[in-house]
Write a structure and sequence with these properties.
alpha/beta; 7-stranded mixed β-sheet; single chain; 213 residues
């Protein structure tokens, strides 16, 4: 019964996702995405692309963009948005931990609000490094564990309910530390907030890391 309920909620969450995040996107999140993705270069992989919030935001130096999304309901909406945008980019249904691409396939890999939800951050980052070409870059925009001890304690206390409600999202991950430990060279990062987001997931960071040449 639990698995059936989770699957049903996952389908509903996918259907509601765009409406739930519209306020955040319109309040500045979309522009933050655009600023980050302006740095994309060459063949680019958008991992955990969801319903397609990054469509149309990649900079002019991005080449072919491939969208990877494991959830079939999200992927269906992603394909629909690409069709509406007359965008012929490929959609691959695959999890971040098992990307079906050869080594050294991309110049840029993108994670935007994805590393909070992947079941295995370490494996996801290792896969990103594997498919990057030497000297390639990882671009990321993620909500993170708060530097404020009081808020961090609340993130820990409410992690379980939030994880269920947000369909697998973790509100208390130290994602910057995970990127630093991945073997990628962490570059400049910018701390900020997700506009109009619940307090548990408001602290955020964007930045880049590079695979050593």
């Amino acid at each position: 019964m639990g698995r059936i309920y989770e699957a049903t909620w996952g389908r509903a969450f996918s259907a509601l996702y765009d409406s739930m995040t519209r306020g955040m996107e319109e309040a500045g999140l979309r522009e933050t995405r655009r600023e980050l993705l302006a740095a994309a270069r060459g063949r680019t992989l958008d991992v955990g692309a969801g319903t397609g919030a990054n469509i149309g935001l990649f900079g002019p130096e991005a080449g072919e963009v491939v969208f990877a999304e494991p959830d079939p309901h999200m992927a269906k909406r992603l394909r629909r948005k690409l069709a509406e945008a007359a965008d012929s980019s490929e959609v691959v249904q695959a999890p971040a931990e098992r990307l079906p691409f050869p080594d050294d396939s991309f110049e840029t890999v993108v994670f935007t609000l994805v590393l909070c939800t992947v079941p295995d951050q370490e494996a996801s980052l290792a896969e990103a490094a594997r498919v990057l070409r030497p000297g390639g870059q990882l671009l990321f925009l993620e909500h993170i564990r708060s530097d404020d001890p009081r808020l961090a304690r609340w993130q820990d206390r409410l992690h379980g309910p939030w994880h269920f409600f947000a369909d697998g999202c973790n509100c208390n991950r130290d994602t910057v530390a995970a990127v630093s430990a991945s073997g990628l060279e962490l570059g400049a990062i910018e701390a900020g907030e997700l506009p109009k987001a619940p307090a548990l997931v408001r602290p955020a960071v964007s930045g880049a890391a590079r695979l050593p040449a």
